[in-house]
Amino acid sequence: MINKILSYFPESVTQENIPADPSADYYWFKEADARPMWIGIPKDKVSESQLDLMKNLFHFVEPENNTHLSGAAHSWNQFLFHGGEMPSEDADEVRFIQFRLQVKDMETEGIHEALNGFFPDHTIIWIHSTFGIIIEEKKEVSESAEELYSIASTFESDFFVKISFYIGKFQKVTAQLPHFFDREKQVFEELISLTTRDVVNTFEKAFPMLLATHLPDYLKNILEFSILEAFEEDKELMATIKTFLESNSNASLSAKKLYVHRNTLQYRLDKFMEKTGVNLKDFDAAVVVYLASLYEELR
After folding, report:
1. Cα-flanking dihedrals φ and ψ of residue 280, to 5°?
2. pTM score
3. Which of 29, 84, 158, 168 allows an S-S link to 96, with CB 3.0 to 4.6 Å?
4. Whole-number Å distance between alpha carbons of 63 and 55
5. Residue-number span of the structural domain to which 282 is assigned
6. Of 45, 48, 43, 39, nearest to 15 (Cα)?
7. What's the count of helices (H) and strands (E) in the chain, helices before strands?
8. Same-domain pairing of 151 and 231
9. How far, in Å, CA of 38 to CA of 59, rounded?
10. Confidence (pLDDT) at 44
11. What does R_g of the chain's alpha carbons equal in angstroms?
12. Given this model, what pLDDT does residue 204 score?
């Protein structure tokens, strides 16, 4: 694969080890093989669509922006990214709340100050200008999704910047923690590449979307010639079914979200079940239909 990329971008450079001081003039990618290779492609040679494609094919290595880290932030950065020793923490378990700003080339000093104000008791590491992690020790009261939604709303109203969060799982502070964080980082990166519809994400939210986009071809074909045929003919029907399932099959709540009468909702549900022969009251069937709706929405 690297050779094909070099044929398209002959001015690219390759390295067998991660660049110690990667040039800002290149986009850097890592090939996910047993013996990985790093490739740098000149930024002025890559279009936006080509960059998106490369991010899907390779692991995108973004330059760190942490030269001024100190104290706990420096210790955690060394531990997570550079094979350093485990930080000395009072708590036995921590979790990582990742965040990403949906903006390019802006002054982030005010945003840094705001985040420090929102999370004064947590360690914050900015990996680069638009991405970072909040390290939260496990205590009696943890940060809630509702609080993060409120923070995201404040960012949008005060800074005109959208911010997305990913709430990780609490884990023991062991030597395996960097590997676990790397997997969570991969989930968040792939989720952001698919959709930014929700500003606060968890593994439970991410899993169905990631699963729907990684279905093998034979399963996609079965969906396309069964459930998706009904959606193709009526996009409003798909939105109705998806909202119904996301509302835990609560008809009253679904009708409220869709701004329709409950009888209208029931008519659409009956219409779908008649077309497909699928009973939405059956849990297994509901799971399949929900994955099908996500697949159709994200493809």
Report:
1. -70, -10
2. 0.76
3. 168
4. 15
5. 215-298
6. 39
7. 13, 10
8. no
9. 9
10. 86
11. 22
12. 94
The conformational region for residue 105 under phi > 0 = left, psi -120 to 50 = alpha, else beta, is: left
Q: What is the dihedral of CA 183, 189, 194, 196, to 10 degrees?
A: 120
The CATH number of the domain where 264 resides is what? 1.10.10.2840
CATH number of the domain that residue 176 is part of: 3.30.70.270
Unique residue bearing structure tokens 């939210």 = 205
Residues 53 and 77 in one domain: no
Q: How many residues does the chain have?
A: 299
Total tally of structural domains belonging to the chain: 3
- Same domain for 14 and 138? no
Strand spans (E) along the chain: 13-15, 26-30, 38-42, 59-61, 93-101, 123-128, 131-137, 163-167, 171-172, 200-201
User: SS3 of 73, please?
Assistant: helix
Q: Residue 287: what pLDDT?
A: 93
CA-to-CA separations, 244 to 38, 115, 232, 258, in angstroms, rounded: 45, 35, 18, 9
Report residues of the chain scoring pLDDT below 70.
1, 17-22, 32-36, 62-68, 89, 104-108
Q: Tell me how far apart the 2 most distant CA atoms of the chain are, in Å.
A: 63
Question: What does the DSSP 8-state code read for residue 44?
Answer: G
Question: 159 is written with which tokens?
Answer: 């800074």
